[in-house]
Records
---
Amino acid sequence: MWAMSTIIYPSPVFGPVKSRRLGVSLGVNLLPGDGKVCTFDCLYCECGFNGDHRPMRKLPTREEVRQALELRLIDMRENGPAPDVLTFAGNGEPTAHPDFAGIIDDTLALRDRYFPQAKVSVLSNATMIHRPEVHDALMRVDNNIQKLDTIDPDYIRRLDRPVSPRYDVQRIIDDLARFEGHVIIQTMFLKGHDAEGDLDNTTEAFVAPWLEAIGRIRPQSVMIYTIDRETPYNDLAKATPAELDAIRDRVIAQGIPCTASY
């Protein structure tokens, strides 16, 4: 069942917002502020579907991002609150911006000038990490947070819905391993169904291979979570706290820190 749930974020800077996992987070949105552009089209995305919200504006330029971010940081230094983190997120995939690497350099310099204790985080779906300049930029940020909802190609096709037909989850896992531990894996566990049947990645058939991939990637930590906001596709449901806790404990048993958000 399809709904029209949408949160479209301002661009290039929004917030700060209180993040479940990151604290006081100032958002940096490298996509237009009037629509969604993403290399995935997830059934659970709070920004809605790509086709429903095609932007008319252009991407913000590197200089526009730098100027807007500096003005906001000056205001926060004078008036509060102090940010815990500067988070690249918003209306789609941030690493798809052609000047992503340069924008990261600008952001790190501004962070060091105004709030040196704040972390820089990137929330990404991992579709661009094969690009050397993206990989290298992500190695420079504090929290390189990459999505891996499952390693089952059919489930990815139905839930995450990659835009490119060349999406290859095994290549993604190889690329994630190339960070040599400087990566945080973020995984959405949920239940539901679509026209093809059940959508439930909390079962052993999904969890066991995912755990094996986590062991191969050896991330610095793992964040598992479930639906928190209204989704554009209605026939989805939360994973239970008990299910998330059980998965979390199995990650920790591999010697990898893991948190669960309900």
---
Amino acid sequence: MRLPKLHKGRIAPTLERPGAGVQSSFPHKHLLAISDLSVKDIEQILALSETYVQTNRSNNKKNPILKGQTLINLFFENSTRTRTSFELAGKRMGVDVINMNVESSSTAKGETLLDTAMTLNAMHPDFITVRHAESGAVQLLSQKVKCAVINAGDGWHEHPTQALLDALTIQKRRGKIKGLTVAICGDILHSRVARSNIALLNKMGARVRVVAPPTLMPLYVETLGVEPFYEMERGLKNVDVVMMLRLQKERMTGNYISSTSEYFHFYGLDRTKLSVAKDDVFVMHPGPMNRGVEIDSELADDINRSVILDQVEMGVAVRQAVLELLAHKS
């Protein structure tokens, strides 16, 4: 089967769609990590996502091609954007969506993750979306269930759909990813978003820089295929895209920064720091934002520079595409 390509918002007719009663050609049962995907896999997801962007902007947003299937959102960590977008994506495709409240579930009573997995498996869902504080927990769960498992963030490890929606946002803004210079700035050490984006951008031919204070930069970060910088002015020089990250205080067990005001002074994005980038640079942030800590409010709200709300929009489309491609694989 030929790989579908983006073309005026439509997908090439060679893409077989599960909703039409045809088995998907996507070669994976689960979506656990960007590292598992080939360039062709990523291109296929982005191409299909583009069709959902167009549908979601139309008057009739529903296309119940997965009617009768069930999605369980199992989030052991708080989430607004990711869980809501998976719920919306599923409902627009006719999926029955169940949001489990982990705080009031049996896990709060001492049930193990594997027991929870086996219990859910006995209910025969078609998809389980999982967010968990421990790296590798989602992969472990995927080995114990028959349905498709989607990683919505596991510890410091990965957040694959975030990287995919970021890639779609960049592609729609620039028309390409290959050859661009992208600076990922902030709490690199604790960020699964950074790790997934680094993996994806490298696969797609971008040049990746990471900018952070030494306390928030992983050891041997160069082995990930990035150029490390410890000063914003140097790291942002002549870049095409700036991707800011949230300070993940919930994962910090020590004093990684002296104060938020000092952090903003040196590493918070404002117009002065951004001025050394290319003239058409744009700014991203996975959310939630800490305004005045990671990014200046005026810049975050500047529709000529910020694509933060575009990222939210792309998130629904990407998650629709992922559900479609993983359908009928259990």
---
Amino acid sequence: MKKHDFVTFADMSKEKILYMIRLAQEFEKHPNRDILKGKVVATLFYEPSTRTRLSFETAANRLGARVIGFSDAKASSVSKGETLKDTILMVSNYADVIAMRHHIEGAAQYASEVSPVPIINAGDGAHQHPSQCMLDLYTIYQTQGTLENLNICLVGDLKYGRTVHSLVMAMRHFNPTFHFVAPAELAMPEEYKLYCREQGIRYQEHTDFTEDIIAQADILYMTRVQKERFSDLMEYEQVKNVYILKREMLKGARENMKVLHPLPRVNEIAMDVDEDPHAYYIQQAQNGLYAREAIICDVLGITIDDVRSDPTIIEK
């Protein structure tokens, strides 16, 4: 059987995306199972992470798998000079699937080419973050009832924000209209704007973050300005607080509009927004469990029919 990786949305079909949403729905109904009993999931995190790593590990544990790996490359043989290739080959001796985050763009793709077991991209540099995108798509579908014909406003760090890069690629199947709101220093990279033009995706660019823009949105997707991506800290200081969403800015928002954020946040969403009915970023993070349960099972060849007929459901 051909090895199945989860590295990018670039070649993922509309049918596959909708299938993965249905699979995640099954896990939302019953997240606790023993369907992966006897399997081992490795989490290799070369960059810091809270939600992504813990949700992958929780997903594995709730499905009955064992978890191995590291959350700090300094505590592994990487600190001794071991190459990515050798690490992947060694860990694949012990695990059935590897979820990997790496600071170098393209590292997950490379790992998938050398690994005999499935690779899940948990974020590679400023490039892609497909597992976050899967939970974003699930959340958008959950709140809007569709992925079709939506106005999506992406705000903040669009240059280094790998979550928004993946979302733009994944939404190509669903006729979106994007509003890219960013300072010039953090504008959406030209390669993704070119991608939009090639795919017929409508988009507008803005440098001002206004209530009028918010009022048009079905989804308002805030992002953190990522200090760790800047080589010039003076440049970071100039843009770190350029856009701050405050509750009063949501007065004219559509009733069903939801505010999303891949988290962690710093200053870009004021605390008073948390109590607003449009806020949905905590529920979004919870959806990471169901989406990542779906991803792990899918790369291991477990189908939605297997899940629906699964006798190992554990009721709370």
